[in-house]
UniProtKB/TrEMBL annotation:
Top-level taxon: Bacteria
PROSITE patterns reported in the protein's UniProt record: PROKAR_LIPOPROTEIN
Stretch list, region Disordered: 50-88
Pfam families: Phenol_MetA_deg (PF13557)
Name listed for the protein in its UniProt record: Uncharacterized protein
Length: 375
């Protein structure tokens, strides 16, 4: 049982100890106080009558002899542990309700699982899920840049894009992906993430793409009268073969991005990422600077539209990258597009976009349609 606020627990015993003196001065108290009238819990040792005490060799007089005639005997202090426990009937109604509300719930296996997942064992899982909101911070697969905001501790997102079509370019073939991103809030400011292009089809091969390990951290946020900013950081490493089909093994790839968000006038949000990506194969390695951006505005409470673009690569390894054996020294990619997001309720959101490549090294088109679930 949680303790009541310290001030109420410290002041009441003092009032009880002063009660005999108050009785002697006024003579108006005509009954002995109950434990419920003085202390909310059974930790007090206040009972009727005060025994004689000794201090050194001197015996202190019985305080009952100091009370005026007709007054009730003063309260007594019993040694700790000897007093009877107060029951719910002994407590005031407000105190009884608070004691019942703060009582420790019995052990449950599900509670231990929720504690491991970052939620308190006493929390009701259905109540917790009803408070999850897919629009806060929002799905990262919806557009090219990733948000600087992270899930709350214990929050879970599952994002999936079964429609992911990419056209041909001078350095990559056409491709279809069923992408997925699993996000988990380790703390309020740190996410652990798993990403993959999932089920993938390229000319001559169909299978599963490698798994990428990703982490995102929210670093700082500030809001002034004339400027606001939220800053985060993200890093991922895409494995060569984990959970991948042999035909779709890929060279090791990793990236780092600085994530920034701004709220602009007229309800517009501006999101941009700046970083680099490393793409390699046994004969060649490329380090490419990357930049992703998006402007978004809510049309209704549930629907938002955005315009977006990227330079050289997406924030996640979604877009078919340069094949180093085929690419020039600097295979510049540029793309722009339009998209939208619809939050059906607090648990489900749909998103989609269509994008155009602006250079010969960029996929001619890029179409995505997906869903995000919040738990």
């Amino acid at each position: 049982m949680r303790r009541l606020p310290g001030s109420s627990r410290q002041c009441l015993p003092l009032a009880v100890l002063l009660l005999p003196a108050l009785q002697g001065c006024t003579g108006v108290v005509t009954h002995a106080p109950k434990i419920a009238d003085t202390l909310p819990l059974a930790e007090s040792r206040v009972k009727e009558g005060m025994p004689a005490k000794t201090m050194g060799s001197k015996e202190l007089p019985d305080s009952s002899t100091l009370a005026p005639t007709g007054s009730a005997p003063p309260a007594t202090l019993f040694p700790r542990g000897d007093e009877p426990d107060a029951t719910a009937s002994d407590l005031l109604p407000q105190q009884a309700a608070q004691a019942a509300a703060t009582d420790v719930s019995p052990w449950r296996p599900l509670g231990r699982l929720l504690k491991f997942m970052g939620r308190k064992p006493s929390e009701n899982v259905f109540l917790w899920r009803s408070n999850a909101d897919v629009s806060l911070p929002g799905p990262d697969l919806a557009n090219f840049p990733n948000s600087s905001y992270t899930l709350p501790r214990g929050g879970v997102y599952l994002e999936s894009s079964p429609v992911g079509f990419y056209g041909v370019s001078a350095i990559s073939s056409s491709q279809w992906n069923w992408e997925y991103l699993l996000r988990y809030g380790l703390t309020d400011n740190l996410e652990f993430r798993l990403f993959s292009n999932g089920l993938t089809a390229v000319p001559g091969a169909t299978g599963f793409s490698p798994l990428a390990f990703d982490t995102k951290a929210h670093l700082w946020a500030a809001d002034w009268d004339w400027f606001n900013v939220s800053v985060g950081a993200e890093a991922y490493i895409q494995t060569t073969s984990w959970l991948a089909s042999p035909a779709l093994y890929s060279p090791l790839q990793y990236a780092f991005n600085l994530l920034v968000d701004h709220d602009l006038p007229w309800g517009v949000s501006f999101e941009w990422n700046l970083g680099f990506v490393r793409q390699t194969n046994p004969t060649r390695t490329l380090y490419l600077p990357t930049f992703q951006w998006a402007f978004q505005r809510n049309i209704t409470d549930d629907i938002a539209l955005f315009v977006q673009g990227y330079h050289n690569a997406d924030a996640l390894p979604r877009v078919p990258g340069a094949r180093p054996s085929l690419a020039p020294s600097y295979p510049q990619q540029e793309a722009v597009g339009l998209g939208g997001q619809w939050s059906v309720n607090k648990q489900i959101a749909f998103f989609g976009s269509y994008n155009w490549g602006l250079t010969r090294f960029t996929p001619a088109y890029n179409a995505n349609l997906g869903v995000a679930l919040s738990f």
